[in-house]
Amino acid sequence: MTNQAVAPVAPDAPVAPAAAVDWRRVVRIGLLGGVVALYVCLVGMVEVFQPRALVTGIITLGQTTMVLVGVGAAYLTIRGQSMDRAGAAAAGALAGAVAGIFPAVLVVIMEVVNLRAMFLHASPGTSAVLTLGLGAAGAWVPIVALTVVGAATGLLLTARADIQRPATAALVALLLAGLFAGLLRPPLLASSVTAGIGRLLFASDGLTIAGAVIAFIAVVGGRIAMRRVSLRSRVAALSPERQRAARPFGLIALILLVVWLPHGVGPFFAQVVAVVVLYILMGFGLNITLGLAGLLDLGFVAFFAVGAYTVGLLTSTAEYGIALWPFWAAVPFAGLPILGIRGDYLAIATLGFGEIIRILAGSNLLLPLLGGPRGIINIPKPIEVPPDHLLAGPIQIYYLGLVFALVVAFVAIRLRDSRLGRAWLAIREDEDVAEALGVNLVQTKLLAYMLGAAFAGLGGAVFAGLLGSIFASSFPLFVSINVAALIIVGGMGSIPGVVVGAIFLIGVPELFREFSEYRYLFYGLALIAMMLFRPEGLLPSRIVQRELHVPEPDANGDANLDAIDQDARLSPGATG
Amino acid sequence: MALLVAEHVTKRFGGLNAVRALDFTIDESSIVSVIGPNGAGKTTFFNCIAGFYHPEEGRITFDGAPIHGLRRDQIAHLGIARTYQNIRLFAKMTAIENILVGQHFRLHGTWIGAVLNTAGVRAEEVTSHDEARRLLRFVGLAGKGDVLADKLPYGDQRRLEIARALATQPKLLLLDEPTAGMNPAETAQMTAFIRSLRDDLGTTILLIEHQMRVVMGISERIAVLDYGEKIAEGTAREIQTNPRVIEAYLGKGGAADVAGQDQGGIDVTPPSGS
Predict the structure, then answer these.
(1) Which of B121, B157, B191, B226 could disulfide-link to B113, CB 3.0 to 4.6 Å?
(2) Does ipTM surpass 0.90 in this model?
């Protein structure tokens, strides 16, 4: 028996002598799990998530967090180890039990000492979740619960592949369905056609039992049915001509999806997708500076603010508006104040510059012009429509941002393949050599900064239109960091990477808004995991990709120096 | 006529005079070599000409105009291009893109033109690609334009680096140990190629070499540096018989061993058994 999932294990087959379980390691991981469990309790996740149910009447989200800690500890214990089924179950159970001791001890301590001065969430509420309401007398509950969870995880990890895969998928699906119940339910209930389904699957606080059973069966059934007909392998099996013929259909489907998106997801999601598109727009802009020219610009938010304030001042019908222009007339000017900036100080437009602009905008100095903390309000929407119109609210901003983003992507692609794009790439590779070949570093870098900044301004204009009012506090450093992070996560210099990065970093955290600030915990964890496992980004750019794929060189060069070809054998840099 | 005149050039690193009061002249359409033992200041002098270092004292005049103190790109614009002792290609760009970067400052397409893909930009791209392919052919890399630079064999990388330098259409080409790491047959090929650069393109060439045997055949004039100072200058034959040169290379004892040897007798590697 090798390890977990990968090895199909026939249940009654003679078991090869499994390596002895390393019990010290199991205990060590159990202790680690215990610390995590303690942390989860004390930061209040257990208590705060308690009112929400994963499956109504069966398990709450608060309990789920503890279960997940047990699953994680058992998984780490068993992963990569060669254990037979009994060994895995025992190891998982032990890891779970060790982890469970921590919350159990916490329960007892909380009974004796009041920890709430230090830990707000070391409360009776947390204790009640951990002991199923039994109080100190139920201190055994987390130990037993995590032992069972650990054992179950061990059994699942050593189960036959055709049982393990569908079961895992179904459990994950159940978890996701329960987590997103608050988001999935309202759109279902909104339409009379789907309201019945919505009520069947979801209660007000989570999945119904029927919903859980249906989801479980559907996913298991789906997995079994899909096993031989994976979509990807079918596409790969098609001839190249057929694949090419199918491509336009895929494209049309994608376009339809993108156009439909804000309408189909309800008003809350419409706002989310509009923000995602806004970040995609800014990501495309910064991608020119960071992705193509390799210049890290953390003052990006400054230009974002300049664009937003320009549009705000030119269009606002309230106090500080100066022109009363319609939104459209003002947008072209959003990039202008930036395009005009030429000089060395644009090159130092990083961290400090972003903060300077924000503080200036909020300062008393510019209060008569920019409204300081009161901001600029009543910025008109691009198109004024009644609230129930097809283009109401964030939906039109979504489309506007989409169009702008396409324009910026187009510009970026054209630039990438131009003389300038090559110069940027060369600067990124070796600045000294590029300069010695006649590339003016200052000019070329400034152009990259300037273009990125101009598109940041465009993003600011869209932002002003989206919110309808802007304040100095709308432009924290976090915006710059977010845009840079989404480029790095997506893959430097890659256009699709920006889209994926924006969805992943901006969109997904919005889905967890229900879980308030705890979502940043997952955001951070996801970022770290991402950098560990895919440092080149989710969708790396052409330049990174082509390192992996090299066309065969044409063998017959009509060379006057053919003999030098043999040099492949010599190590570069060896001197004569 | 003198294309480049260096007068009294001095470059110091801390207390060390890497190049000391060097006077040097390069005539147009000539091949001139600077040789010397390791650490003699050859590359430092090179870097002073190409604008990588700025000399503390002295002046360098190129084509009648002073160039010391100019930025590297300004010097490139005036018509000086170089290669590097340890190859410095843009590793993650293709061969043809490397050459196109060399053409960069001679092209005129603006970023707006590139975005709008104007007829002018398109035409320029076509001609520049044609020229780049011609250069690839010239250096013997025909058909390898789409290969990433760092995936080329070592000798090809050396040639690509020369092609990239030629793309700037230099009047003066600085070659820093172009035969480093090559065996005798390859060295001979490279030597012939360097000669053809001058004969076919009329490019003036300043060559840095470690091995005297490389430069003997092709250089009109040779300068020998030792400890940052020029210890000898003249034709190949004059240099070969100059006792100070022999001493610098082999030390006082070695000088006797090579006495009487005719050509190519002086090399970095001391004769075996000495």
Answers:
(1) B121
(2) no
